[in-house]
Amino acid sequence: MSGRFRRRSNLKKALATEAINDLHHVMKESNDQSLSDASARLILRIGKKYGARMKNYTGIAVCRSCKLAMVPGRNSTVRIRSKSIKYTCGVCGRTKTMGPSFRG
Fold first, then answer.
1. Does residue 104 lie in a domain region?
2. Which one-letter DSSP state was computed for residue 101?
3. Range of the domain at 28
4. Could you give the 3-state DSSP secondary structure of residue 48?
5. Around Cβ 40, how many Cβ atoms within 10 Å?
6. How many other CB atoms are there within 10 angstroms of residue 23's CB atom?
7. Alpha-carbon distance 45 to 22, whole Å?
8. Does residue 38 fall inside a structural domain?
9. C-alpha–C-alpha distance, residues 31 and 26, integer Å
């Protein structure tokens, strides 16, 4: 029975993490909203398949309900409260809160 439950190799997860970082760079540097949204959808798809996540936060979030790139000032709002940061998607209205343990 040991052959039934194979784990994904670390190489595949490392390649997925590298792909996510590249897509995040494209999403961050692009001025085209459709390119940013396509990158956001791919980031969510790769993350779901391989269990890889973005390691550090650099200003652009991904809305998990409408699967779009939430660029502050373009299609989302950012509120800074005492000890928390709150992002609101301008398309669907979903909020994302980063609490006191948030380290940028």
1. no
2. T
3. 10-98
4. helix
5. 24
6. 19
7. 14
8. yes
9. 10
- Provide the whole-model pTM: 0.79
Counting every residue written for the chain, the total comes to 104
* Token reading at 36: 């940013």
Instruction: Tell me the C-alpha distance between 95 and 26, whole Å.
Output: 24
**What are the pLDDT digits (tens) for 34-60?**
999 999 999 999 999 998 887 766 667
- Using the 8-state DSSP alphabet, how is residue 72 labeled? B
pLDDT digit string (tens) for 12-34?
999 999 999 999 999 889 889 99
- Distance from C-alpha of 97 to C-alpha of 41, rounded to nearest angstrom: 20
Tally of domains in the chain: 1
For the chain, how far is it from start to end, CA to CA, in angstroms? 44
15 lies in a domain? yes
Q: Under 8 Å CB-to-CB from 92, ≥6 apart: which residues?
A: 63, 65, 66
Residue 42 covered by a domain: yes
> Could you give the CA distance from residue 55 to residue 94 in angstroms, rounded to a whole number?
22
